[in-house]
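Good day; I would like, with your permission, to put a structural problem before you. A protein sequence and the structure tokens that stand for its backbone fold form the material at issue. I would ask you to consider whether the tokens describe a fold that such a sequence might reasonably adopt. I set the record out below, with my sincere thanks for your time.
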Amino acid sequence: MSTRARVVPDADAEAERQGAFRPREEGPTDLRLVPPALAAWATAAVTLHAPPGWAVTTVAASVLVAVVLLAAGSRLLPARRRPAEGARVTAHAVAATALCVAAAAGSAGLHGADVRRGPVPELAREYARVVAEVEVTADPRLTRPRVSGPHMAPVSVLIEAEVRRVKRAGTTARATRAPVLLIVDPGDRKRTATPAEQQGSPWRALLPSTRLRVEARLAPAREGGDRFAAVLRVDGRDGPHAVGGPSTPQRLAGRLRAGLREATEDLPQDPRALLPGLVVGDTARVTPELDQAFRETDLTHTLAVSGANFTILLALLLGPPGLAQRAERRGLAPRLGIPLRTTAVLGAVLSLAFVVVCRPDPSVLRAAACGSVALLALATGRRRSLVPALATAVLLLLLYDPWLARSYGFLLSVLATGALLTLAPRWSEALRRHGMPPRLAEALAAAGAAQALCAPVVAVLSARVSLVAIPCNLLAEAALAPATVLGFLALAAAPVAMPLAEAVAWCAGWPAGWIARVARTGAAMPGAGVDWPGSWAGAAALGAVTVAVLLVGRRLLRHPWWCAACALLLVLVVVQPRPLVRTITGWPPPDWRMVMCDVGQGDALVLAAGEGSGVVVDAGPDPESVDRCLRSLGVTRVPLVVLTHFHADHVAGLTGVLRGREVGGIGTTALEEPADQAAAVRSAAAAAGLPVTRIVAGERRRTGDLSWEVVWPPPGDHPVAEGPNDASVAMLVRTGGLRLLLLGDLEPPAQRALARSPAARHLAGVDVLKVAHHGSAYQDPGLVSLAAPRLALISTGEDNSYGHPAPGTVEALRAQGAAVLRTDRDGALAVVPGTGGDGEVEVEVARH
């Protein structure tokens, strides 16, 4: 008798073969590797700057502890003296932690020694001039434009490198290996190189692994960062002298990145700047204005090579990483029937390609390691492997580069990844239980969890807390994946088919432009962020506030009406409707005629020219400050921008005035010095399509009930107008029955000439005087006596290094009977006409 047996296929095996592997039921999250990773992190951070002997002692002590604990839990001891099973497991865990501490101390000690040993630190302390052979280790980058008093600090190229050989005059070359920072100064010391000029510099095009021969002056690395042995200041006029080309992988990456830049060349400004940053972290085209918008909305992670980039690529292959914890998977692999472990291998190949294209520096390796966390979960099918995989990645990266232990970027990357793996799934489930759609719950939980853990660290860096970060991240998230995927397709197509790459880049430009609009719109909100103490104490306070908000929010989820009320309150705080703000704060006063904005060490004035309209006189040193001031006043139309002269503390904020406003034109003084700032003004005007005209004495203009007469400078060359300050545009303004005298930065020679000019008869007994040159000591007593103002206003920065305003100037004004107010102490100042008769002046003060 024969028996036929029916074979039933293994459901799990069949599911795995089809790519729908069902993970095994497991217990709570495995946290055993977290303490060793944290211990190694702390050890590396401390050991990097500890004395050399400290690292050796730490290694020896940690190894000894590990050996003792392992011996105590092994069979080396008699059975009666062996610890219980639970104690043995604890001993093994402590021993593993001790070994990780030893490894971290050893690695950090060696990296720290690289900074202190060799001839480079000694020569740096002597500020020696040397000839050095260096190897570039990272992409060159530009310093951000920065106002230093009346001038712009030079825009320099920064290059991280390693010195391989160094030679001082009269000595022989010495071999070494010291990390340094090259600061390539602009060649022409008489003018400041613009960012656009430095972008085209041959120094900017250097690829990592290129070897250079440079003549430089060494200096201690006080500003360069504690991971550098010295700073090398290089004269950039002659260009780089290469003695060795880049490696093959770097050349390949360079060609691909250059192809992406070429493919995006014809896109609109924002997508053209953003797309290379979204794909490979190339932010060379991102303007300071756009960068600030991304900072205000906490979207800067989209501009850096991060785990998000790699996760998006993995999502194409295996679906959203969150589904690695469940039975179902999405993505191309299961749809094509690719087995589970083969999918993991393909993911590893993708990881390697990602590292090659985005440059194998520590930040890219960190991104690949954190983004590859999902691979182990996929290969094993285990939910519990996610957090251990992150801990392992952190541990290995810290051993590879201990300087990451002091990196804020590394800390933020780990916190964000940890939030997505631990908090986000729980919060998503909670939101689903309260009826929220699954996709929306996942997105909101991910954004909220990352923001909750990262916000305290961001507050330390920026001294500000964004209130629009979560909604902006949610809105940007919808466009991030298509922009990144299409961007990588353009990157791959550029070397073989540029027309195809340009077409794909054009498609990618739409979602990239959406992300830029989200950032700009969010940053433009009056309540986009609140100032916060930029210290670790402030971070701890923000953490406590976050916990309290989460506890309250958990209870509010049970009450939809309370949730709606809180959401409405948050919207009002962020949007800050002007009628509501004016009712609560009283700012701006309903009948304001002039406002002196608080822009720090600089000048920016606004003259009321009708509802929503204002003439701007000077723009201050910072676009954000003057833009914030104009938004608080509700100014959306600017008939004219008057730039009294071209010093940076008066014109560097021009782009903030032009931001999102209807501007009629720009008027300037005839003396275009400094030349670089005059060129920057003309460039900004050309980009906005605005005419630039010259203003001279005798001109009269009117808009509504606002009128003004230009009283200085006279037409043509004037013997006292020898510099930019004496060429400042001075104006006599009439508005609301008041007379205001605005003197720019006139110095005593020009002030005396103005007091003797034909216009002097109109200057006697003004109501308001904008004191010249931030209240410096250089004032002409005759002009002050002639003007005899009722009110004197001084625009100056808090704790400025120039001593503005000078005590003698303040006393002289008060001696003339003037009330003196200043922005460094009183904040923004609004002048309104009085109600007690002609010539009465009232001043409203905005305190920030």
